[in-house]
Design a protein that fits this description.
250 residues, quinone binding, 7 strands, 7 helices, oxidoreductase activity, acting on the CH-OH group of donors, NAD or NADP as acceptor, oxidoreductase, globular, Sc_DH/Rdtase_CS, 3-ketoacyl-ACP reductase
Length: 250
């Protein structure tokens, strides 16, 4: 039986790359996202994965994703919380609107929290075997600890995601479920496409010890490492996939 995995935000970028890698490695993957692009459906069919159209902020859609992985693969073993958005408009924190704050926090933090709660309960309801019982990976960001005053709501949401990781890691460790976090750096996705020239210049100017853009596949490989049992004695940890951005250097 394949181990069932739910991946949110799974129609592009990090989410789509994670679905592909996990499916190639033999996991039974159900990817959830709001869009339903024909080209994405074709890829899912090729990979033997299940696509669920839904929104992580909607409770019924979260349940739909859980039922989809259970019906397709007979179980749920892991959750990868990728779904996230940046502010539609970058605004100084003195001008940030409540509407923008609510939108970003609902998807990046509230949706992650309650999706994790739902899947954790489902894993605990399954018969317990030997070895690792389950794994949850939250995709956060270097913005969890890096100030960007033109997108404060995003930074706050990712800092919240880090605490969600720690809280569930604490609660679920005794149940045989590990909960960890990947903090991507500057990754080549649709979200970063609008500021590509800015980051091209920063990378060329020496911002990163590994002087290149990160790719979605770089993050997907970190996710695989955290769910496949090789780090079964690790929980509540943040793995920086950022080209060395977190290194403080003079």
């Amino acid at each position: 039986m394949k181990r069932g995995v739910i991946v949110t935000g799974a129609s592009s970028g990090i989410g789509l790359a994670t679905v592909r890698l996990l499916a190639e490695k033999g996991y039974g993957v159900a990817g959830m996202a709001r869009s339903k692009k024909p080209e994405v459906m074709e890829k899912y069919a090729q990979w033997g994965a299940v696509y669920v159209q839904g929104d992580v902020i909607n409770a019924d859609d979260r349940v739909k994703a859980l039922k989809a992985v259970q019906e397709a693969f007979g179980n749920v073993y892991a959750l990868v919380n990728v779904a996230g958005v940046a502010p539609k408009v970058r605004a100084d924190i003195l001008e940030m609107s409540e509407e923008s704050y609510d939108t970003v926090m609902n998807i990046n933090t509230k949706g992650m929290l309650f999706m994790t709660q739902l899947v954790a309960r489902a894993i605990l309801a399954q018969p317990r075997g030997t070895g690792l019982r389950g794994a949850i990976v939250n995709i956060s960001s270097l913005s969890a600890y890096t100030s960007s005053v033109s997108r404060g709501e995003y930074c706050i949401s990712k800092a919240g995601a880090s605490m969600i990781t720690r809280l569930f890691a604490d609660r679920l460790a005794g149940e045989g479920i590990v909960v960890n976090e990947v903090r991507p750096g500057i990754i080549r996705t649709e979200m970063t496409s609008a500021v590509r020239e800015k980051y091209d210049a920063l990378i060329a100017g020496g911002l990163l010890p590994i002087a290149r853009w990160g790719e979605p596949e770089d993050v997907a490989k970190a996710v695989l490492l955290l769910i496949d049992g090789q780090l079964a004695y690790t929980t509540g940890q943040s793995l920086d996939v950022d080209g060395g951005f977190h290194i403080r250097r003079l």
